[in-house]
Write a structure and sequence with these properties.
This protein is an alpha+beta fold and 522 residues long. The protein is 26% helix and 16% strand. The protein has 12 helices and 17 strands. The N terminus and C terminus are likely disordered.
Length: 522
């Protein structure tokens, strides 16, 4: 069942409407187009255009005569209108765990009409040729897919700042780069161990496949293959966007992460159940959706599980409030976590266990504690911190996640490690297994520098200053301040300090209230 939303009206902060859509007659005609090693050839010259991230589109009914590299019965597969089924894939027959479905593959010539999206892939000659991005050691990715590209068929041309609709969005919701609320991004002073922003932009530029669960057909050449690394990647990427790079330096990474969020949102709207807890596999997808919604001013996208309460995200399923044996008030909820406080898995020991002391743990609880320390907690810190800095904890709508991350980073687990060893014989004394750390030094440095400046609870205070230069008047609220400045809101709308100074407290353009929690109590 598809979930439909009316198209939003996009306005942006320059005070003018975004660039008008081009006429189809203004587009060039081509009999073939290429991107990232994939070439589509058409039956005749067709109007073609490019989205803001560089992906191609065609206009009107077209026939794709062939694709290169040419598909075989088992390699280099293409799929027209990817279904939202977690358990299947049609790109390569080597996909793990009997997930391959040959009937998903598009044949050529392939007829396309507006609303369609064709995803074409290049297979790896040998699985494991590309090591898993962001992972250490000698692990070999299971995916046989090297890279994918998306060809979208539209009913008309769009402006050059248009994002590609999600490859699972048959309604083809179009968002625009000029509507991005870039003023919501602070310019925090950089810290040590800053990653290369250009390299990260390249990793996010091509489409990330996120339907077949466990990353079985993820694009191995550039995509994060495991949820732990997805969470790390989106945390690092968005934290970089909050630092004091120039706008030009941020732009490619910003556009590409927003596109990833749009893709995930389209998957969700099409009926996908979500990225549920299963060790580290379900992590990292909520924040890019929320981040994109916040920057685009789409209220539903900015709070995805409020729009769709049945959507599942690993971070939320694996954190819950309870009395922990360590004295904490928040616990890790196990390998497959909980829904509404109840264990999801029927496998004994795969649900909550920290409400009991280690002397009462079962052998099967070890998988929970192992994954708590190796593959979840230390990867969540970046996205949690980025959400705090952007005042998005209310939009996230699961406070236990943020409180758990605080616990992970601040709770001294020396006594706990000894107690677990004494009771169960499980040794978590190695440096990699200890609390109080992130996987990535950059994230640790950002946490140390900025966590204390951005409390979870939004600080509201009345100000005598009023909005001027507008027909609407409202009370300005200071949400929080740090050494780089303050973040404000008017009538529940977020303004950066830069906007306040530039506009003289004029809220440019009427916009939807992004989240009700920012409204000043009367």
């Amino acid at each position: 069942m598809h979930r439909l939303f009316p198209a939003i009206t996009a306005l942006f902060f320059s005070g003018t409407l975004f660039a008008a859509a081009r006429s189809t007659t203004e587009l060039p005609f081509a009999d073939s187009i290429s991107i990232d090693g994939i070439t589509w050839k058409f039956g005749e010259p067709v109007p073609v255009g490019r989205f803001v991230n560089g992906d191609w589109y065609v206009v009107g009914k077209v026939t794709v005569n062939s694709v290169h590299p040419a598909p075989t019965a088992e390699r280099n597969g293409s799929i027209l209108n990817l279904p939202v089924d977690q358990g299947i894939s049609g790109f390569d027959s080597r996909v793990s765990s009997n997930r391959f479905r040959a009937n998903l593959r598009a044949g050529f010539p392939c007829a396309m009409k507006p609303g369609d999206a064709l995803i074409s892939s290049i297979s790896l000659d040998t699985i494991g040729t590309h090591g898993p991005w962001l992972r250490e050691g000698n692990e070999t990715p299971e995916s046989p897919v090297k890279t994918v590209s998306v060809l979208t068929c539209l009913s008309s041309a769009v402006s050059a700042d248009a994002f590609r609709p999600s490859y699972c969005d048959r309604q083809q919701t179009i968002y625009h780069g000029e509507s991005l609320c870039r003023d919501l991004l602070p310019n925090l002073p950089k810290v040590d161990d800053m990653p290369d922003i250009k390299s990260w932009a390249r990793h996010f530029r091509r489409p990330w496949l996120d339907v077949c669960f466990f990353g079985f057909d993820a694009a191995a050449e550039y995509q994060a293959m495991y949820g732990r690394e997805v969470a790390r990647a989106v945390g690092i990427g968005t934290l970089m966007l909050l630092c004091d790079y120039t706008a030009a330096e941020k732009e490619s990474l910003l556009i590409n992460i927003i596109q990833y969020g749009i893709d995930l949102w389209g998957i969700s709207r099409a009926g996908y159940p979500g990225w549920q807890a299963h060790g580290g596999h379900g992590s990292g997808r909520k924040w890019p959706i929320l981040f994109a919604g916040l920057l685009l001013g789409d209220t539903a996208m900015a709070s995805p599980d409020a729009a769709y309460p049945e959507l599942r995200f690993g971070e939320d399923m694996q954190t819950m409030y309870d009395q922990c044996w360590t004295g904490a008030k928040v616990v890790y909820a196990g390998h497959q976590g909980v829904i509404d406080g109840k264990p999801v898995s029927t496998t004994p020991g795969w649900g909550p266990y920290e409400h009991k002391p280690p002397t009462e743990w079962a052998d099967s609880n070890k998988i929970g504690e192992d994954y708590r320390r190796c593959c979840t907690s230390l990867s969540w810190v970046g996205e949690a911190l980025a959400a705090r800095i952007m005042n998005a904890t209310g939009l996230w709508n699961h406070d236990a996640f943020f409180d758990y991350v605080d616990r992970w980073m601040t709770e001294n687990d020396s006594a706990a490690v000894k107690a677990i060893s004494d009771a169960r014989g499980w040794d978590y004394s190695a440096n990699w297994a200890r609390q109080g750390q992130c996987w990535d030094a950059f994230v640790e440095n950002m946490w140390e520098e900025y966590r204390a400046s951005f409390p979870q609870r939004i600080i509201r205070e009345r100000s005598p200053r009023r909005q001027t230069g507008s027909t609407r008047r409202g009370m300005m609220n200071r949400l929080h301040c740090n050494k780089t400045g303050c973040l404000y809101s008017i009538n529940g709308r977020v303004l950066s300090n830069e906007t306040v100074q530039r506009t003289g407290i004029v809220l440019v353009k009427e916009r939807q209230t992004l989240y009700k929690s920012l409204s000043l109590p009367q």
